[in-house]
What does this fold into?
Amino acid sequence: MKLLTDFSALTNFSVLTDFNSLLSSGAMTNDDMKNRIHKIYAQFISDVDPDLLGDHLKQENVLSIDLWQKIIAHKGTQKDKCRAVLDFLLQIDHPSAFLVIRKALEKEKHYILKTIDKEG
It folds into this structure.
C-alpha cells in the first residue's frame, strides 16, 4: 500500500510540475484563448467555418452531437452558426473548449491565428 501511495504522490507531483512548466513557458491557457477570441468576436464569426469548429469540438467531447445540433438549429448563414457556437462557448465554463478551437485552427493553418496571437 505504501508503494501505491508513493507512486500516486509522484504522479501528482509530475503532473503538477508539467503543468507549471507549461504555464511558465508562456503556453496559452484556455482563459487566454477565450479572452483573445472574445476581443476579435466580429472577425471570428465572419471568418471561421462553424463546421470546422463543430468537428473538433465533437471529436474532443466538448460538445455532444445532440448539443451541437441544438446550438446550430434554425441558424441560416455560416456567420449565424458561428455566432451561435461562439456565444454558447463563451457562456459555459468548459476547461479546454478554446484550446480545442486553437488546435483546430492550427491544424487548418487558419490565418486568424495571427490576429488571435497579436491580441496577447
Notes: The chain is about 75% helix and 0% strand. The two ends are 47 Å apart (CA to CA).
